[in-house]
Design goal:
nucleotide-binding, globular, 13 strands, Amidase_CS, two-stranded antiparallel sheet, 37% helix, alpha/beta, AS_sf, Glutamyl-tRNA(Gln) amidotransferase subunit A, 507 residues, Amidase signature (AS) enzymes
Amino acid sequence: MSTLQEFDSIEALRGALTARKVSASELANAALQAAQAQSGLNAFLHVDPELTLAQARAADQMLANGQAHPLTGVPIAHKDVFVTQGWRTTAASKMLANYTSPFDATVVSKLALAGAVSVGKLNCDEFAMGSGNENSAFGPTRNPWDTQRVPGGSSGGSAAAVAAGIVPATTGTDTGGSVRQPAALCGVSGIKPTYGTVSRFGMIAFGSSLDQAGPVARHAKDLLELLDTMSGFDERDSTSLEFCDGVANAPGRMRNEFAQHAAQFDANGAKPLQGLRIGVPTEFFGDGLSADVAAAIEAALQHYEALGATRVNISLPRTKLSIPAYYVIAPAEASSNLSRYDGVRYGHRANQYGDLADMTSRSRAEGFGPEVIRRIMVGTYVLCHGYYDAYYLQAQRVRRMITNDFQQAFADQCDVIMGPVTPSVAKRIGDNRDDPTADWLADVYTLGVSLAGLPAMSIPCGFGGAEGKLPVGLQIIGNYFREGQILAIADRFQQVTDWHQRKPEQK
């Protein structure tokens, strides 16, 4: 058993590091060895032991000097859409195959300043466009629970690395569900915070009004450790929020809210969640939801009721409209964001071409994969003169209506919303090869949250599939800036269940 697998949480790791029972260098070496041993998962795109061990030695020095932060010495890894000095940043695309950034993304630098040790860069769908991690130019990541199945996307490498026990936590990004969905399919926990609470500076853009960074880990408390560190106002990001409901957007905000809710739950005694109203949307339990996933979600809801919560049936009537709205807005923003990759300013340049137009066309055709090209084409189409009003503006109107549905539910009926993350357990790699848009339908429960900019997370709540061996995730959706609340609610569930502690057999 590796050193890392002896600890079941970041808190346990921190205790061992502080007591000098283990060093940051030993943990880093263990993570590097685990990454190599499980290279068949294809979770990592770039590992550089020298860079990792240099960070680990610096963390050991911080510990020795009594200057440690909560994450000092903890091994993590970054999704390959965060630019990093030293490690390559490819966005899992041939377009950026050999790119190395001269600076770190804000998320990366914040975690580094807190002493976290990066093991490397993680595989993902190309430019974060996908739901299964099959769109990577460097091959799909494989689900540790069944290597013939997808880990979910686009942050598939992030979820797989945690599920396999290579690192205790990773960073990901969520545009339409890309943290929550892979967390659910890999049996780990993941959270997307309120849009604007975490800086997007240095995060390669897909959909600028949707993209938001979030962590993946086993425990809700581990998510809190990373997310509280990652969050905060950043003047280099025009979408970064300076205040969150009147409270300064800075580290400590989420931790304080978590502590307040945890204290209240403790004060409630045997029924810690007494008074909590859980909204359950009827639209999340209709046709398309598999029976095994529905059963696991129902069992989790009953568990919450046993903890004192009250279930309230609510309606989010425009749930199905989130799919067409998202797949107009997100491709439109992708078309704009990816226009910079033209063979001149950024990215791959074709070796053979005629004039400038031919160079740009060939460079983009060679550098981008099929899914990225598909979304660029859709986005360019809906932004064209004559179609802009009919598609893009109409999608934005639907987006506002979806947001209003959530706000009405929170104002009148419930404190949080719960339901499934995905309609089914992880599919087999290649299942939807003949229908590349079929994966879009799997995002039906996550897209509305992203369109509304709300915080939401996934926690393990059971297993499904033909043999009952594939993870199922429960989605917990909160109102704006209530990350601490939903993390505390998730933590209370994880205190009395062990789904998040289940691990796949290593092969």
